[in-house]
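ARCHIVE CARD
SHELF: 3
SLOT: left
DATA:
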Amino acid sequence: MKAVMQRGARANFHAAMRFYRKNATTSVAMAFAADLDATSALLLATPLLGSQLLGKVRKLEMRRFPYELIYFISGDDIRIIAVAHEHRQQNDWGGRK
């Protein structure tokens, strides 16, 4: 099994990295990236760990940052469709596949 970050999720990730670099420090941005990597690894070890949202779509909160990975399982892949901030509108990922 492997984790595949879809284009929209990559855009979410890069936007968060820019935010942390601009408004905090590079080390905070790197901690965010490490938290995302750790959450992805957790998903690979336990794909059904996240809570169900809609149909096959699930979410798993990151440990240190107020973000969650929105994903679904497709064959041998975990497809991450969004890296969503927990306190912002979640509709931006609704049509992603």
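SLOT: right
DATA:
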Amino acid sequence: MAHTMPTRKQIPQKTKLHLFSASAGHCQRPQCLKVLFPEEIGGDIHIAEMAHVIPHGDSGPRHKERTNDDFEVDAFDNLILLCPTCHKIIDKAPKLYPRETLLEWKRNHLVELAVSQGIIFYQSRSQARAAITSAMDENRAIWRQYAPVDGSQFIYDPESESVQKWSQRMISVIIPNHFRIQSIIKMNSSHLTEKEKEIFAEYNEHVRGLAERHLCGTSGAAIRYPQDMNGVFS
């Protein structure tokens, strides 16, 4: 029996956040890995497209790979984050890019990205420390220069130049730096003390909140940056 075209629902913000977090802000096609918040267009606008692995209805790319009638099309597991070019490529040639290939891209994405960025396992805590220092220093410098003293600027003048600069730096520099720091620490987690593992968990929640607010546009409280992160691997 032919599948009827289901009513399209808006993809939940939680799913969007999950996708952006899992992609670390980069196209998930391993041959691409393009930054999805390119600086050449300001760094505060993303070019990401949420591509369906299995489409809505029964006529789109890979539709014959649908598992059953209850398949959740807009679930995280059926979405992949791509740049516009790669989205077009996979949908124009679905036989070359079947479901399992796309899911494998997602599973291996952070490893592929880490390798492309030179993120490796270090033999000592001091080496791991050196690897995260520059990104942490850059974030602190931007915070000191651009961060609003209080929230009033956002309430009363969201179009002000200072607020726009802060938002742009947050999306194009600070959050990508956080993703890089997370990747390095995860790769070198065996060097963490038990206390540092707790601090890193708090840090991950801080980054999640920032991504939710600035990448997905979802209002909500992000926990404060845990100052003890500044001493990780010291």
